Amino acid sequence: MHPALVYTASRIALLLVAAGVLYLLGLRDPFWLLVASFLVSGLASYVLLSKQRDALSSRITKNR
To answer: What average pLDDT does the segment 17-39 reach?
Structure first.
């Protein structure tokens, strides 16, 4: 599978998981839920998706 699809799907999955967890923890306002979900999933993807990010960047530089 193309690394861009894997990375994008992983980012979307992390966003949905973060939103679900934050909702279960009591964050019910849609605006703040969205903002917090983006922040949490961004931090989580920085830590958890380094392998996918490296694969994507090597694929991009290889095609140049």
So the answer is: 98
What secondary structure letter does DSSP report for 63?
T
Number of domains making up the chain: 1
Domain that holds residue 52: 3-62
Q: What is the reported pLDDT for 37?
A: 98
Residue 20, pLDDT score: 98
Tell me the residue type at 13.
A
The CA distances from residue 8 to 27, 32, 41, in Å, are 25, 23, 12
Closest to 14 (Cα-Cα) out of 45, 39, 35, 36: 45
Transcribe 25-52 into DSSP letters.
TT---HHHHHHHHHHHHHHHHHHHTHHH
